[in-house]
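Support case: flavin mononucleotide complex. Customer-provided input:
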Amino acid sequence: MEALLICKSTHHGNTAKLADAIAKELGATVVTPEEVDAASLGGFDLVGFGSGIYFGRPHAALRHLVAGLRAVPRRSFLFSTSGLPVFSTWWHRGVRRALQQRGSEIVGEFGCRGWDTVGPLWLIGGINRRHPDERDLQHAREFARSLAARVRSAADET
Ligand SMILES: Cc1cc2nc3c(=O)[nH]c(=O)nc-3n(C[C@H](O)[C@H](O)[C@H](O)COP(=O)(O)O)c2cc1C
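Agent response - structure generated as follows:
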């Protein structure tokens, strides 16, 4: 299975940790939205789009990449770290919709806590300190394994 992860992680490198854990499990490479060859995405079995959440949305570089895609991967997944991951599916909504409208199937979404020192939170050392932690990364690896199983069984059926 050919997989790729596109990740933008600018605050504390939180989402980069998540991307590395998922990529290792999938045998995939991680690139930034600036590095990726957008025209090549249609050639992957699975592409993950991820970033931290900034003011309720994934990073602008990721959103702009997705909005400008001509060839979308057949299957995609979304991942993020945020201060309030209970709202992950809400944070992902714009990118999810843009991919689905172009015909990519969203096969999974993953969100977990990320160390957040934005604004006044900095004064108290932030929230979610030490996250993503080993437990978060273990959940991310399990998520990756379930994605791989899902994509492989879909491929067997076709
Ligand atoms: C400018 C800024 C805005 C943020 N806005 C939100 C937000 O709207 N909701 C939220 O849950 N977390 C928010 N966060 C917290 C980040 O999503 C969180 O720290 C995330 O783990 C950062 O990922 P990164 O280290 O990969 O950049 C914000 C952080 C920053 C720096």
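DSSP finds five helices and six strands in the chain.

Case will auto-close in a few days if no follow-up is received.
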